[in-house]
């Protein structure tokens, strides 16, 4: 046992007095305080209570420390060993303040009492403890943050041994923090080059050498513990200490599999969009050519007696041009499937025409079972023609050895008893049935999904577009099939509520008229042939190449007291103002304007709702003489 003598104690006391937060005191084994310096009084918050340090003498130590300082066994331990150092504990001052201290207790001999007593050096470590608690709280917040972020995070030491794996990292690698800790990063972070399938490794040496962040330039697959492959993006960053020395690495990575797949789908969509733009441009130019062809044919027929042979030949040529116009509308529908331009129509004739056209030259025949009293439907004939064409083409391809396509159409009343998601009412039900290879139950559930196809050369867009077009007509399409027994598609289209007697006009009925017409079109051919036709029909015609000219001419004519009775406006003028913009100006100038919108773009939203924009009617390019004459006559005379 070693006891401090008074000289040694005084030396320790003198040294301790030079440090803030340190005090010295002495007490007997029964707890009576013999001495307590001002540093101790300050630590115990007793300076105000005992202004003079001598006032503390005779007090029991338990009164000053709220009985927190251990007695009994502790004091015997000091007596036995001569000291007890580094005793750390919290206590509460008499004022209720919580503090942390460290005690170094020594056994010393007191000459005045002629007995051994306990000598204590007390250290106030409250600030240190608060700092430790704040550091621990910060560490906990960092851990919670790392575990909650979506990216995987792995930290390692300078050798690449794992220190931490967050929750996302656990999910992506398949390794839990407890299992991964201490292992080398290469054991759990298994990566390969997505293009070459060659194994890759993290370039820790390179990061250590350069001190810079590294990101993999190539696409990388991370293979998890269960063998699952994920495309990831990742970066490796060095961790620096206060002296700017690298002490470890942090690897941040995330799963980009879905992102890459979406980008690839977007790329496909953009390619299709490019095709659509090209198709739209071709169709637009083709419509202008057809306008000239059909217009000149119609004009020639007006100069020839209807009973003469040339007129019959021209009529056949005109029919061919009309068929070409129908195909152009289908091309435009593919290019831009916008809002349908609905008009009352007989779907019976449409079914026959499109079916015979698609099956022409093939070894597949057609059979029609169509009710004689089939209701009319209000449809966009171009879009529904595409629907029929898609389904008949599918039926033809399903029977490569030949066969028969059965086309059925009848009237039904849809109600609660019908197992179709339609509002109650009158519908025309169409069935297109083949006797081909059929579709499995698994694939049947997905046939209307975009890009889904069972054909080697298919794009998977035909049935998806069909579904979309039927839905835009407030209809419904479904299918049933059996493998090696054939497939049947069912289409439901709402019946037309308009008076059927007003649906069909007399074929090729040419109506003459009188009045002054302004024709806006950027194509020389269209202006020339349409102008001649309008002159022949009895109208005076003036021309504008763009919307700005049309606005100026219309305003000037009205101000001079010689207004135009009607304006025929091309919807779009490349590089200039077309009817779409010009009508806004003209309606403000003359709310009573009688304007006809003209376009080959039947999918434009203005076409399907032209009255909303200030137009009185729509006429599709290329013009059919009867349609042009009737539309213009109706607009001028009825508005």
What does this structure look like?
The protein is α+β, with helices and mostly antiparallel strands and 639 residues long. Helix content is 39%, strand content 26%. The protein is built from 20 helices and 25 strands. The strands form five sheets. Strands 6, 7, 8, 9, 10, 11, 12 and 13 form an eight-stranded antiparallel β-sheet that branches. Strands 2-1-5-4-3 form a five-stranded antiparallel β-sheet, with helices on both faces. A five-stranded mixed β-sheet has the order 15-17-18-20-19. Strand 19 (476-482) and strand 20 form a beta hairpin. Helix 13 (381-398) packs antiparallel against helix 15. The longest helix is centred in the middle third of the chain and has 47 residues, at 257-303. The termini are far apart. Residues 456-461 and 499-507 have low confidence and may be disordered.
General shape:
elongated
Helix run count: 20
Q: Into which percent range does the helicity of residues fall?
A: 25-40%
- Indicate the low-confidence ranges by residue numbers: 456-461, 499-507
Mean pLDDT: 80
* Distance between the ends: 122 Å
Q: Which value, in Å, is the CA radius of gyration?
A: 46 Å
Q: Mind summarizing the main beta sheet?
A: 8 strands, antiparallel
Count all strands and give the number: 25
Which band does the percent of strand residues land in?
25-35%
Brief overview:
Helices cover 39% and strands 26% of the residues. It contains 20 helices and 25 strands.
SSE layout and pairing:
Layout: H1 6-16, E1 22-27, E2 33-36, H2 38-43, H3 61-64, H4 73-81, E3 83-92, E4 98-110, E5 115-124, H5 126-148, E6 152-157, E7 162-165, H6 167-173, H7 177-180, H8 185-188, E8 190-193, E9 199-200, H9 204-210, E10 214-215, E11 220-223, E12 229-240, E13 246-255, H10 257-303, H11 309-335, E14 343-345, H12 347-359, E15 364-370, E16 377-379, H13 381-398, E17 403-414, E18 425-433, H14 441-444, H15 462-472, E19 476-482, E20 486-494, E21 515-520, H16 524-537, E22 539-544, H17 547-559, E23 566-570, H18 579-589, E24 595-599, H19 605-608, E25 617-620, H20 625-638
Parallel strand pairs: 15-17, 21-22, 21-23, 23-24, 24-25
Antiparallel strand pairs: 1-2, 1-5, 3-4, 4-5, 6-7, 6-13, 8-9, 8-11, 10-12, 11-12, 12-13, 14-16, 17-18, 18-20, 19-20
Helix pairs in contact: 10-11, 10-16, 11-13, 12-13, 13-15, 17-18
């Amino acid at each position: 046992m070693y006891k401090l003598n008074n000289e040694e104690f005084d030396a320790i006391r003198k040294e301790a007095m030079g440090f803030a937060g340190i005090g010295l005191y002495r007490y007997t084994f029964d707890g009576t305080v013999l001495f307590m310096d001002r540093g101790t009084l300050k630590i115990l918050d007793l300076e105000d209570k005992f202004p003079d340090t001598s006032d503390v003498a005779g007090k029991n130590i338990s009164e000053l420390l709220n009985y927190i300082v251990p007695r009994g066994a502790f004091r015997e331990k000091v007596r036995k060993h001569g000291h007890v150092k580094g005793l750390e504990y919290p206590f509460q001052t008499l004022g209720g303040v919580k503090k942390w201290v460290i005690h170094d207790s020594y056994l010393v001999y007191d000459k005045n009492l002629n007995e051994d007593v306990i000598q204590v050096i007390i250290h106030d470590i409250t600030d240190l403890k608060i700092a430790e608690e704040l550091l621990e709280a910060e560490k906990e917040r960092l851990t919670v943050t790392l575990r909650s972020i979506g990216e995987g995070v792995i930290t390692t030491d300078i050798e690449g041994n794992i220190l931490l794996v967050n929750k996302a990292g656990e999910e992506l690698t398949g390794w839990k923090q407890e299992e991964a800790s201490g292992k080398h990063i290469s054991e759990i972070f298994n990566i390969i080059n997505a293009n070459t399938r060659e194994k890759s490794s993290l370039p820790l040496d390179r990061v250590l050498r350069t001190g810079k962040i590294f990101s993999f330039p190539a696409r990388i697959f991370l293979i998890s513990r269960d063998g699952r492959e994920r495309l990831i993006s990742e970066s490796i960053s060095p961790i620096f200490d206060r002296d700017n020395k690298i002490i470890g690495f942090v690897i941040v990575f995330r799963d980009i599999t879905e992102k890459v797949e979406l980008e690839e789908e977007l790329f496909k969509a953009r390619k299709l969009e490019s095709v659509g733009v090209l198709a739209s441009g071709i169709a637009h130019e083709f419509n202008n050519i057809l306008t000239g062809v059909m217009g000149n044919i119609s004009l020639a027929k007006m100069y020839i007696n209807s009973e003469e042979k040339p007129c019959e030949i021209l009529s056949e040529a005109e029919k061919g041009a009309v068929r070409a116009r129908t195909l152009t509308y289908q091309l435009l529908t593919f290019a831009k499937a916008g809002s349908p331009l609905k008009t009352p129509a007989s779907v019976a004739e449409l079914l026959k025409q499109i079916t015979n056209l698609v099956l022409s030259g093939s070894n597949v025949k057609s059979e029609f079972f169509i009710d004689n009293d089939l209701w009319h439907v209000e449809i966009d004939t171009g879009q529904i023609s595409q629907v029929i064409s898609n389904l008949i083409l599918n039926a033809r391809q399903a029977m490569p050895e030949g066969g028969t396509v059965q086309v059925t159409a009848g009237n039904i009343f849809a109600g609660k008893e019908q197992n179709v998601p339609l509002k109650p009412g009158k519908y025309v039900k169409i069935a297109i049935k083949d006797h081909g290879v059929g579709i499995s139950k698994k694939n049947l559930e997905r046939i209307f999904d975009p890009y889904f196809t069972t054909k080697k050369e298919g794009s998977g867009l035909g049935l998806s577009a069909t579904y979309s077009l039927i839905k835009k007509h407030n209809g419904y399409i479904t299918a049933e099939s059996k493998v090696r027994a054939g497939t049947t598609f069912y289409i439901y289209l709402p019946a037309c509520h308009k008076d059927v007697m007003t649906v069909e006009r007399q074929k090729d009925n040419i109506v003459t008229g009188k009045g002054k017409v302004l024709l806006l079109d950027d194509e020389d051919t269209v202006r020339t042939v349409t102008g001649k036709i309008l002159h022949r029909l009895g109208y005076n015609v003036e021309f504008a190449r763009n919307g700005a000219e049309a606005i100026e001419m219309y305003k000037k004519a009205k101000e001079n007291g010689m207004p135009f009775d009607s304006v025929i406006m091309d919807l779009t003028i490349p590089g200039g103002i077309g009817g779409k913009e010009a009508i806004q100006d003209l309606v403000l100038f003359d709310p009573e304007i009688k304007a006809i919108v003209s376009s080959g773009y039947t999918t434009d939203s203005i076409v399907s709702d032209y009255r909303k924009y200030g137009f009185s009617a729509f006429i599709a390019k290329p013009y059919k003489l009867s349609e042009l004459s009737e539309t213009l006559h109706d607009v001028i005379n009825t508005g």
